[in-house]
Amino acid sequence: MSSHREAPEISKDPVADSTDLYAFVSPDRSDTVTIIANYIPLEGPAAGPNFYEFGDDVLYEIHVDNNGDGMADLTYQFSFRSETTIPSTFLYNVGPIESLGSKYWNRRQLYSVTRVPRGGKAEVLARDLPCPPCNIGPLSTPNYAGLASSAVHGIAGGRRVFAGQRADAFYVDLGAIFDLGDLRPIANLHATFGLPALSAAPGVNTTQNLNVHSIAIQVPITDISLGGAKPTNTAAAQSSVGIWTTASRRKARVLTGTGGSGTETGPYVQVSRLGNPLFNEVLVPLAQKDRWNASIPANDSAYANGVAHPELASLLNVLYPGAFPNLAAYSKPRADLEAILLTGIPAGVVSSSFSTLTGTTQADMLRLNLAIPPATSPNPLGVVGGDIAGFPNGRRVMDDVVTIELHAIAGATIPLVDPTFTPDKAIADVSDGLSGAGLTFLNAFPYLGTPYSGYAVGPE
Amino acid sequence: MESVSRRKFFKQAGAVATVAGTMAVVPLGLASTIAGAATTHDEALTPKEQLRGNEDLVAHVKNARTGEIALFIGHREITIRDRKLAAQLVRATR
User: What is the pTM (predicted TM-score) of this model?
Assistant: First the structure.
């Protein structure tokens, strides 16, 4: 998945496990940028009596690099604390929750937001902002959409924040892909290791009807841009910023044996990181994934070989013999993937007026050109679909990043940097067979759809 | 991480051993208290030196042979090297 359970250790720590990162110029407020960091993968909506919540013991951060060195020039920090207001009951709520101040709501979370400029003084932007409850069902959380919208908070400096449960917008046929690279639509071409042949079939969305917990912030473009200026030159490197999210835990934790989480002390240490979707999941070897999670983008040249020579591209030739002859014969480093994922795309590659380049430092960051306005008719295939306001220029909630990245790894983007290469015809069929049909989004902040309720969604 | 003087550390080490609610993390997963080590430091903490009410100090003996000990307090990590103290802590677990 994008980053839902991408590394061995962090997959055992879901509240600190980032799943997806989105960053885009806000379609309804084009002078602002929206950044959304999702955590807690694969939330089943029926989770009572203890519904999902952020970790009180986790420091969640969104970082912005605006000078291309792979280091954070600006960080937004989010810290949570939980309250149990009716200690005598075993229930999450003892009546309908119709407002964020409901007396029937037993277990709630509040959070603070802090802005930390590089080398500057941290500024607390807000304290004790309430999260919405999880979406339970028609008796516990009637009018959930309205209730959740009341948890969109305007804070200092024209910023908005939201932290709480959302429907997962990421879709992928995880069950097939990690069954030795089976892409159901072309399963009939799979080598199957001598086992009985598979039949082509439509994709199955593994994240269907599942939720995540989102941390969303909308800020003026000038809050994150280099020098606080509003970029206007879509071809200039100074117009693009790099964005990533991290989660950190305190270094020392001692369980007291008296219930609860014990005591924690010492500095925070990073345990989770996410920039581009699927980077750690697909391009970093399993044995290095948790180390990657603990490192910073500025050090990502250590992982560049996995980008220049992606294992998945080699596997395509093995798993689908004869389907990718041109890709099989291509031995040069994948400069297309290095540009897309590690440095940004220079002007002149896609067009003379388009760039996501941030510099020469190889760093996995979600790069967003702040000078490019939002699209009026977004194409989920983003830049490869002719829509330069979409991935890999940032990432919008509807972008089909699995298809885009599968096509790129299969060679579709090589001609951008090497016109001598002809993509294999089979690329057109490289897909997990999903299009995001059925997903719904909000047309305003925080954009991600209303989470599925436990009452409405049951086992299939 | 920050370094700390030997004298300052001995005061803090006294806190490890004597202040209620303080825990030490030692190798091999041993989790027993180290009350026995308290007898090796007679100099009590002054009121100003005491840990604050809910403040925890955790010591991690990273290498008993070299005496490398990491101290975690508040949002800080302080590394010291004191073979004698490390030996005392290890002996307290025996």
Answer: 0.91
